[in-house]
Design a protein that fits this description.
Radius of gyration: 38 Å
Distance between the termini: 110 Å
GO molecular function: electron transfer activity; heme binding; metal ion binding
CATH class of the largest domain: Mainly Alpha
Keywords: Electron transport, Heme, Iron, Metal-binding, Transport
Oligomer: single chain
Organism: Pontivivens marinum
Largest sheet: none
Strand content: under 5%
CATH topology of the largest domain: Cytochrome Bc1 Complex, Chain D, domain 2
Protein name: Cytochrome c2
CATH architecture of the largest domain: Orthogonal Bundle
InterPro entries: Cyt_c-like_dom (IPR009056), Cyt_c-like_dom_sf (IPR036909), Cyt_c_1A/1B (IPR002327)
């Protein structure tokens, strides 16, 4: 190799090195760190200014719990989802494959199949049983639930699919799915203070009727102030009894004598009506369009409007639309209807075994403490402590069927 050829090679190497330095220098100018940025503090070439102040935390909707999903889970759908799992597991008999058999797995202690010796340390170190919640978390991401597990399955993302698989595992084991459903606790309805508005309105009505306007006008004002306390009786006295006369019919009857009869003739009739009203006991249990004998004492002052507000927390699980079920059955026309009679809803065995109708008394007792009244019910609601709130709720539910 001559000296000329050697010089060409050497010049090429030097040229390439200089080109590398040039490109590095240009790159630092465009994308490099700011001056002084090579110390402990680093600066980005391009900074995005963020708004100052605290960033509001966004509430993440986690969706329904696995217990709520199990209420409507389908074992048939779960069977189809479980087919890929049959390569490693058996759900119909006690035969192990690559993984342990899954017969009776729901409710069984974790890593407790004695005939299977391939458990990983990650599973054997876990304590407790395979509850529906634990199984759902494991099926969602086995490696996240038990880091180091030998199970190579990547996981099932949809919670509804996991609920269907669990329902299938329960069905193949001959177990009762209701025994494994745990619904989230619902906050009890706060006790509302007794409102004094009706009392104030009654007092205002009493004051609005002056006694100096004549006996005829007084007879019209008195029934108007007592509409909510007792049915108004028809005039004359020989007509239907007071308990059978609805409020709507009473109003025109009391007005008719005032318009047609002179004051001298109206006065004796008014006196007779007042004497009869004083002689008859005031029926405090009466409410509009309901006979007094049909209502228990605790329903006397029930307010459907207040019950509407108390029902709002219940809307998370129930509707008042006929045939529209959610986590719980539709409550349309539930008052005095048969217990556990909504078609298309799968009740717990504890509820399905009850007989009779949802009377005022039964609804009142059940709303106070559902789990104590019907042990084994899936209803997670803690109960309504206030007697008045329960009465208001029942009054509101009664309007749903009208």
């Amino acid at each position: 190799m001559g000296s000329l050829e050697f010089q060409k090679i050497f010049a090429s190497v030097i040229g390439a090195f200089l080109a590398l330095l040039l490109f590095t220098w240009v790159g630092d100018l465009v994308y490099g760190l700011e001056e002084g940025g090579h110390g402990d503090e680093h600066h980005l070439a391009y900074e995005i200014e963020l708004p100052e102040g605290d960033v509001a935390e966004v509430a993440v909707d986690e969706g329904p719990s696995i217990g709520e999903l199990l209420v409507t889970a389908s074992a048939e759908s779960g069977e189809g989802l479980f087919r890929p799992c049959t390569a490693c597991h058996s759900a119909t008999d006690e035969s192990n494959k690559t993984g342990p058999y899954l017969l009776n797995v729901v409710g069984r202690d974790i890593a407790s199949v004695d005939s299977f010796g391939g458990y990983s340390d990650a599973l054997t170190s876990l304590e407790g049983a395979w509850t529906a919640e634990a199984l759902s978390a494991f099926i969602e991401s086995p490696r996240a639930y038990a880091p180091g597990t030998g199970m190579s399955y990547s996981g099932m993302r949809r919670a509804a699919d996991r609920a269907d698989v669990i329902a299938y595992l329960v069905s193949t084991s001959g177990q009762n799915l209701e025994d494994f459903i745990v619904l989230p606790e619902a906050a009890p309805v706060e006790e509302a203070a007794t409102e004094e508005a009706p009392v104030e309105e009654a007092e205002a009505n009493d004051e609005a009727a002056p006694a100096t306007e004549g006996e005829a006008e007084a007879t019209e004002a008195a029934p108007a102030a007592e509409v909510e306390e007792a049915p108004v009786e028809e005039a004359p006295a020989e007509a239907a009894p007071a308990e059978e006369a609805p409020v709507e019919e009473a109003a025109p009857v009391t007005e008719a004598p005032v318009e047609e009869a002179p004051a001298e003739e109206a006065a004796p009739e008014v006196v007779e009506e007042e004497e009869e009203a004083a002689a008859e006991p005031v029926v405090e249990e009466a409410v509009t369009e309901t006979a007094a004998t049909d209502l228990p004492e605790f329903m006397v002052n029930a307010s459907a409007e207040d019950g509407r507000r108390a029902f709002r927390p219940c809307m998370a699980c129930h509707t008042l639309d006929e045939g529209a079920n959610r986590v719980g059955p539709s409550l349309y026309n539930v008052v005095n209807n048969d217990i556990a009679s909504v078609e298309g809803f799968r009740y717990s065995s504890a509820m399905a075994e009850l007989e009779g109708n949802w009377t005022y008394e039964k609804l009142n007792t059940y709303l106070e403490a559902p789990r104590s009244t019907v042990p084994g019910t899936r209803m997670a609601f803690a109960g309504v402590r206030s007697q008045q709130d329960r009465a208001n709720l029942i009054a509101f539910l009664e309007t749903s069927g009208q």
